[in-house]
Amino acid sequence: MIVKPRIRGFVCITAHPKGCEAKVREEIAVARAAKCESGPQKVLVIGSSTGYGLSSRIVSAFGHEAATLGVFFERPSTKGKPASAGWYNSVAFEKAAHEAGLYAKSINGDAFSDEIKAQTIETIQADLGQVDLVVYSLASPRRTDPKTGETHRSVLKPIGESFTNRSLDTDKDEVCEVSIEPASEAEIADTVKVMGGEDWELWMEALDEAGVLAPGAKSVAYSYLGPELTWPVYTNGTIGQAKKDVERAAAAISQKHDCQAVVAVNKAVVTQASSAIPVVPLYISILFKVMKARGTHEDCIEQMVRLFNERLYGDAPKLDSEGRIRVDDWEMEPDVQQAVAAIWPEISTETLFEKSDYKGYQENFLKLFGFGLEGVDYEEDVDVELDLPSAQS
After folding, report:
1. 224 flagged as catalytic
2. Potential cystine with 195: which of 90, 242, 274, 369 (Cβ 3.0-4.6 Å)?
């Protein structure tokens, strides 16, 4: 079929298989160009199909020649309809890894469940023995607690008082004003339950108990802080409470297991998750313009290259006062933030394309779903029913 982008709000409901493969191979080229001697050898990536999780898997495999096992929850093609972008990304990754002679398998299912944890452990025992790096990069709107069976749903809301600020209506390409009512105590608790550190702890407990966690292994989970203008809806909001719980979990994991668990605070980039957060897409559009002008702009893959090569491995990781690795350091440089703050009040629908890199934001968004990649014929009839190569072996 001929696949075109169909966008609803902050999600594209179609994905292009060849475009997703082209995007994955672009990231592979970046990882290969930055190949590093020291690094992980056997890696488990929980949440490996998009964003920072996918880039972590690519850097592990093509920057460090590691065997990788990926866990994700994606939609394969059904009844001739295109699969999700994450499915096509994973197909493309496995294909490239196998071509390079690298071990790569994937498990598709609910990573919050005991069943997927058990299946993952069985695969590690059979194929790898142990893993020396666990990347935890899940971003989900809901989680079913495996012990109680209760389903919890996360919300993106401020805490204590309502929040009003400029935002971006990406459907209409308009700068608008958004007002968000504060979260209830139950909504805060649910968001922490979904996006906090509890499931990361359960994973590390299960891996350690099964003997598949290598002595002295590392584990990393991802977070974001951002500037003050986003704090009410992010850092000081419900999602910020969840991220604080992830930091709590890192300390608990490091204390309980023979493992160094850290939180890496990453730069703002265009991902499916960040596109859903009010205010953030407008901030990202301005940030891109500022950082590109300074030559310091990075996407997911460049961030993960720097994290793996300069922070996680090699010399001892440099931690901030809260024990986190900061890969958002270039974004948070005072002159960058001052430049963003100067542009913010000047942004309107009329000045959007002039004062920000909204065009770059749009291009990055479409690339998440395999659209707008050079060398891809989008008028070509393509096969949308692709299987994971590891499932066929």
Report:
1. no
2. 242
